[in-house]
Design a protein that fits this description.
The structure is a single chain. The chain has helices spanning 12-21, 83-108, 122-125, 132-152, 178-186, 196-207, and strands at 3-7, 26-31, 43-46, 65-68, 114-119, 156-163, 218-221. 40% of the residues are buried. A seven-stranded parallel beta sheet has the order 3-2-1-4-5-6-7, with helices on both faces. The protein has 231 residues and is of the alpha/beta class. The protein starts with a strand and ends in a 10-residue tail after the last strand. The structure holds NADP nicotinamide-adenine-dinucleotide phosphate (NAP).
Length: 231
């Protein structure tokens, strides 16, 4: 039985990961809210990556898997973005990650081979209008992940999932009705938007021994968006 720490996990993709793992593993969910977890048998730690230090005494000595879920989708033209807007995206996507990871690395090093799973976006590989700020902060994650994977191999593996549009609370403004979902789906070669299972399935695989020879990868889970042009 592994100890898996999800930063986020109270809803969205992280919640689906918790749902897929909690019966077989000890799952720790560190998030600001817990209501949506209901009776799910996970250990909840109240935590805000932006303002708090994680309570390491609430964590097990050994952590086998770590997933960082907080992210943003703030789409605006570059000319209307302030330096503070860029800083905010950088805070939630990247600075929060490195802060908690520095606290958690000693726990990860006690595992035989730990797995770290991070999230980028399709918009790093495929340039898209209005994505400058979020693409910059997710681009930081991609570069960071590859360097860290090199630094920590063979003891720790580090991989990044780069989703395209996925139906979660984070994307609710872009997917507020069925027409919008259908329209967004049509833009993808596989003709639909993503769901939380599409992404959580890959996270589960990356946390398992099944992926023990995979590290330093950016894995597009995007309905073909980043690599295919079928128009
Ligand atoms: N959905 C998409 O279309 C999409 C596309 C590309 C990439 N991604 C990336 O995939 C990842 C997961 O996305 P998602 O759609 O599942 O997001 P989501 O629906 O917003 O869920 C995010 C999770 O992180 C937690 N969280 C947010 N801010 C936090 C903070 N400051 N401190 C601690 N926990 C925090 C939330 O819980 P609390 O609010 O309870 O803290 C929640 O459990 C993100 O990194 C996102 O950028 C998503």
């Amino acid at each position: 039985m592994k100890n898996i720490l999800l930063i986020g996990g109270s809803y969205g993709i992280g919640f689906e990961i918790a749902l897929q793992l909690y019966k077989e593993h000890n799952v720790y969910v560190a998030s600001r809210t817990a209501e949506n977890l209901g009776n799910l048998e996970v250990n909840h730690i109240t935590y805000d990556t932006i303002t708090d230090s994680i309570d390491t005494t609430a964590l097990p000595d050994r952590i086998d898997g770590f997933v960082y879920c907080p992210g943003s989708i703030s789409l605006r033209p570059f000319k209307s973005l302030s330096k503070d807007d860029f800083k905010k995206d950088m805070e939630v996507n990247f600075m929060g990650l490195i802060t908690v990871l520095q606290d958690v690395i000693p726990h990860l090093k006690r595992a035989e081979q730990a797995s770290i799973v991070l999230f980028s976006t399709v918009a790093v590989k495929l340039g898209m209008p209005y994505h400058t700020s979020v693409a910059a902060s997710k681009g930081a994650i991609e570069g960071f992940a590859k360097s860290l994977a090199a630094e920590l191999a063979p003891k720790l593996r580090v991989n990044v999932i780069a989703p395209s549009l996925t139906d979660t609370p984070l994307a609710k403004r872009l997917l507020s009705n069925e027409d919008k979902k259908a329209l967004m789906g049509k833009k993808h070669p596989l003709k639909r938007i993503g769901n939380t299972k599409d992404i959580a399935n890959i996270a589960k695989f990356l946390l398992s021994e099944e992926s023990s020879w995979i590290t330093g990868q950016i894995i597009g889970v995007d309905g073909g968006m980043s690599t295919l042009n079928v128009s």
